[in-house]
Amino acid sequence: MTATTANLLTDNPALYEARFPDPERTAGRWTEDCLRRYEPPGPRVLDIGCGTGRDAGYLHRAGRSVTGADLSDAMLTYARAHHPGPEYVRADLHGFDLGERAFDAVVCLDSALLYCHTNDQLDGFLTSCRRSLAPGGLIVAEMRNGAFFLGRTELLDAPSVSGFTWQGTAYRSTTTLYVDRTAQLLRRTRVWTADDGSPPVEQRSAWRLLFPQELRHVLAAHGFEVLALYDGPGPRTEPPWQEGDRPAATADGDRLHLIARLTPTLHP
Asked: Where does the Methyltransferase domain lie (predicted)?
C-alpha cells in the first residue's frame, strides 16, 4: 500500500465531481437562498475554498459578482475551464488579503472552514474575512458539527465503504474516522482501491471539531453577529435542503450551517 499526504479527489477535480455529483446544484442554490434571505450589502461574493468552482459558477449565473479562491492549482485550472464566469485566484483561507472591503459576502462550504486546525489559523481566517468584507457583510459557511460527536459514535463505530465508476474505472474507498480529543480534530484515514491494477493508496486528513457555542464566541470576538446557526436542512443533510425550507431551531445533527454578519460599528 502507498501512503500519501496527497488527496486523490482534490488532486483530480473531474474525479471529485464524479464522486460528489450535484446535478441539481443544491449547494449553490442553498447558498443563494441564504444570501437572499439575509441580504448582504451588495453582490460581491468570495467563495473561499472554492474547489472545482461548481458553486462559484452557480452564484455567478445567479447574478453575483464572484471570486473563487483555493490553494489547489489543479482545482483552479479546472474551475476556469469548466465553471467560467467568476474570477479565480490562489489564496489560503488561513490568511488572505484580496482587498479591503472588497466583498459583501464570504462563502465557505463543504467543511473548508474546518481546515483551520488551530486557534491561530481560525483567527487568521476571521481576521481576513473582517478585512475583506464591507460593513454589514456576511459569512455563509457549511461544515461538520463538532457537537454531533458528543456522546454519539455512529460515524466512528465502523469504517464506511463507498464506490463509483469513472471513465471505465471502478473506485472503492474505505474510510475510518476517529476523534483526536487533545487536538480537537476529527481524523480521517481513507484507503482507495481501483480495478485498473494500481496499488491501494492510503490518505490521511483531519477537520477541526468546532462547537456551536465556541463558534459564537470566536465570531463575536472578531466583530461578527451570528444570525443563524443550525443543523439543517442544508446541501449535505439527509434529506437535503429544498426550495422554501426554513432553518431549523436545533444544532445537534452532523452538519452545521452558519450565517454571521459583520457588525458595522466594529469594522476597522
From this structure: 45-137
pLDDT tens digits for range 121-131:
999 999 999 99
Taking only the tens place, the pLDDT of each residue in 134-165 is: 999 999 999 999 999 999 999 999 999 999 99
Q: Quick one: DSSP state of residue 95?
A: B
Cell numbers 465503504 correspond to what residue?
161
Residue pair 66/83 in contact (Cβ under 8 Å)? The answer is no
**Strands of the 133-144 sheet, one edge to the other:** 87-90, 65-70, 44-48, 103-108, 133-144, 255-262, 224-230
* DSSP reduced 3-state for 219: helix
Q: At residue 233, what are phi and psi to the nearest 5 degrees?
A: -80, 155
Domains, the chain, ordered by start:
8-145+210-266 (3.40.50.150), 149-207 (3.30.1300.30)
Grid cell in block for residue 55: 458553486
Distance CA 125, CA 256 (A): 18
State the Cα–Cα distance between residues 112 and 129, nearest whole angstrom. Answer: 14
pLDDT on residue 265: 66
pLDDT tens sequence across 201-219: 999 999 999 999 999 999 9
Contact 143, 255 (CB under 8 A): yes
